[in-house]
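Hi there. Long-time user, first ticket. I'm pasting a complex I've been working with (about 584 residues overall). I'd like to know whether the download I got is complete or cut off, because the file seemed smaller than I expected. Thanks.
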Amino acid sequence: MKIKGRVWKYGHDVNTDYIIPGRYMELTDPGEMAAHVFEEHDPTFRKGVRKGDTVVGATNFGCGSSREHAPLALKHAGVGCVLAESFARIFYRNAINIGLPALECPRIHDSVSNGDAVEIDVTGGTVRNLDTGAELKFNPLPPFMVEVLNAGGLVPYLKETEEW
Amino acid sequence: MSTASEKILARASGRDGVKAGEIVKARVDTAMMPDVTSVLAIEAMKKMGAESVWDPNRVVVILDHVAPPSSVNSARVHALIRGFAKEQDLKHFYDVESGVCHQILPEQGHVRPSTVVIGADSHTCTHGAFGAFATGVGSTDMGAVLARGKTWLRVPETIKVDVNGSLGEHVYAKDVVLRVAKEIGVSGATYMALEYTGETVADLTVAGRMTLCNMAIEMGAKTGICSPDHKTFAWLRSHGMDIDESDALHPDPDSCYRRTVELDVTGMPPMVACPHNVDNVKPVTEDSDIEINQAFIGSCTNGRLEDLRQAHAILKGRQVHRDVRLLVVPASRGVYKEALDEGIVTDLVDAGAVVSNPSCAACFGGHIGLLGPGERGIATSNRNFRGRQGSPEAEVYLSSAAVAAASALTGHITHPEEVE
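Hi, the file is complete. Here it is re-exported in full:
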């Protein structure tokens, strides 16, 4: 699985309220959630994001609420992948569960700039900065999570898995 | 040689022993979902091909975040969830009058020591106060739990938080956990469990231990946990539960901990978490010139009877500052009724408080009690993220109920001793 797009770079502790504020938790349609992604944190994001773009964070990306609205809003806005030095655990699970690759990549924050073109080889474990040529490796996902991601998320995975 | 989490997860996965780092498929004893995450979980369950929940006795659904509905959309969501509860014949459905999920769950007998509690809300870690392994998940994970009654969990490493010393006057569990957050940081416990031990934890009430465990997630932790003791068992029995004490699992003294955080809280002043991170913690006296527009006393962190009593002791017979709106929201109907019986509600209303029905209220900025641009609030809840309680140009400070009440009186952040 390869993902190619531009980088939207943010900092440490990007929390779920930044990704989508609590007042939108009453929404149940992912398309409507996507309309409010980063609405207050970065108003340029929604208009500028293109399919396949990558969101890059530093440490503790996705901290806060258990709302799956956060990864759903990112995914349905077109985000192909989230790279961060570390993730908050519920966001991490949620992202994988809905089929949005969340990849722990040491030093990623210092290795890319906003707007850089990157290519991510999810199964190969590499991030290539197409603007600078630099290549980084990310921590491989546990095999079970790769299976979930390859199936397209936990729903399709469990649909085909009797043993659980 | 096992931590509390390792022992509970070994039992729940039918293994003799498990170690931190392993991934286990754990049997779930109680699955809880609140209004705001239920619809996606129900959709996920159905898309997985399950027509019905694995056990209608073990699924607890609570309409609390936007209760009663504040918009047509939230009313629609509640109606969908009510329909699901009826269709599935769920035995434990709590409608909008009930209160915050993390207060209802133990009050109504859904939490037992050494069981696995999975909730579609990040503050599910609260129930570690009863010695359960309790953690929050998202809606798709909850859908899988509804369908199969199991979930996968990575057995967490554990940080031992050993708290000793006596708490001074006006110093409470909230001050302790804010102090712990300052020490560990907002991501210092990511993927890990916090085991709270020490004489201070033993001295705390069960309500105070709930406050400690509730905020484990604010340090990134998967759960917080207190070993069950005579107070835990007495609390559970007083809430109608039949408890076998010998069934409770306790950590071994020689457990392997990732690290130990030792704190002596003797002489520690009340603490305040300043904007916009929960670990930006300072003694209350360092913030005393900061003026506030709103004080919110409530939430699964500090909306219990002992919190309302703290506020009452400070506010009784006095008037909230004219530039401050004070919002008091009991955590459950049970708490509300006790506060009514004790005369707390009347005195708070006389002091100028808005006392609202039990719900999550201002904590997550979903419906009532929002802050406008440039406004500043002090809150007994758990998160002070930018925009969490309304405008991204507002600021939120976190404190105990006593500090929030004292601040409501003076109009600026205040040590309760100043208003005695």
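A couple of notes from our side: The two ends of chain A are 26 Å apart (CA to CA). The interface with chain B takes residues 13, 15, 17-18, 21-23, 25-28, 40-41, 59-60, 63-69, 71-72, 86-90, 93-94, 97-98, 142, 144, 153-155, 158-159, 164 of chain A (CB under 8 Å).
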